[in-house]
Amino acid sequence: MVDAKGTLHLVYFQGRPEAGDVFYARSEPGEEGFSPPIRVNSQPGSAIAVGTIRGAQMALGRDGRVHVAWNGSSRALPKGPLNPAMPKDSSYNGIPMLYARLNDQGSAFEPQRNLMRLTFGLDGGGSVAADDAGNVYVAWHAQDGSGKGEAARRLWLARSQDEGETFFGEVPAYGERTGACPCCSTRIFADSRGTVYTLYRSASTNVDRDMYLLASRDQGERFDGSLIHPWKINACPMSSASFAEGAAGVIAAWETNGQVYYARIDPATLRISTPIPAPGDGQDRKHPAVAVNARGETILVWTEGTGWQRGGSLAWQVFDKDDRPTPERGRMEGGIPAWGLATVCARPKEGFTIIH
Questions:
Q1: What pLDDT score was predicted for residue 349?
Q2: 271: alpha, beta or left? (left if phi > 0; alpha if psi -120 to 50)
Q3: I need a surface site. Which of 228, 257, 282, 319 has the fewest CB within 10 A?
């Protein structure tokens, strides 16, 4: 992501897919390279890339402080609460939702912390958001023992009001019991007005795996929600989602039935516009990322042909300020490695940078 000064901030994974490390680096305006990387996770091998959707996510908070959250690996410590339905001695029982923030000097990350106090069964990737007022939000979906199966999973939220120094215990983000698709990631985002948004995939039945948008105007105290895109599928699609903010407001992007979409969120009503698909016949498109530049143009980036232990192609399309496709589009065969995806950001000179 790019901050107000034009600095590009990046987190990336390195190591064994099942037990690797997360690194942070930045590129200042006018520089071609990146700063020396800083390892985010204090315990070596406590991050994971398997499944694509369980990796680290980053947010920038007050005074540009970097906040990172990620699903822990099977060796990660500290452990979270144990799932009573799993063997106690299983290395996959008690997988934690981990968080770390850059220290005051900006020279290293503080020791990683597990934020799961009441919930268990972490699976699809969690997410982090932060704002300029010092609020930090970490979201994930898990169980609390009140039911069984996917329909009993819920989206949970841990909040901090002191830049991540301390967190309240996790609480359900949404009052409606929609279930949560276990292998799909969630995405949380705080805009410049302080409104907090979340995208996640429900699992109210085995075949109802719909995309939900939640929004809060009171720093995560209460979320209103709506089903924005239904999907009938008797499987977990292992999907991800994305947010970006431009001068006209926030844009959300997600996947449904092999196609990727984006839509604008009305800042007054918090309702979305008609979803806009990537042009062409969407058959195997996944992992959308979105950005908006100073001209109001939107870029939608996605993968094609990726799957379990399989990489694929990178593709992108630029839309004008009225959401019409422009001639600026592309596709790179083999541009995505196994367990990989792409991200994109708008640059100060109105261009876009895709990282893959």
A1: 78
A2: beta
A3: 257
> What is the fold of 1-240?
Neuraminidase (2.120.10)
Is 180 within 8 Å of 153 (Cβ atoms)? yes
Residue 45: count other Cβ atoms within 10 Å of its Cβ.
17
| Residue 339: DSSP 8-state | T
Distance CA 21, CA 327 (A): 39
CB within 8 Å of 33: residues ≥ 6 apart = 27
Q: What is the DSSP string of 4-41?
A: TT--EEEEEEEEETTEEEEEEEEE-TT-SS-PPPEE--
Q: DSSP letter at 222?
A: -
CB atoms closer than 10 angstroms to residue 281:
9
Indicate the length of the chain as a whole number. 356
Q: Which of 74, 100, 77 is nearest to 87 (CA)?
A: 74
Structural domain spans, the chain: 1-240, 243-356
Q: Cis bond leading into 267, ω under 30°?
A: no
- pLDDT one-digit tens code per residue, 16-74: 999 999 999 999 998 889 999 999 999 999 999 999 999 999 999 999 999 999 999 99
Q: Considering the entire predicted model, what is its pTM?
A: 0.97
Angle at 32 between CA 28 and CA 36, to 5 degrees: 65
**Which residue from 30, 22, 37 is spatially nearest to 98, judged by alpha carbons?**
22
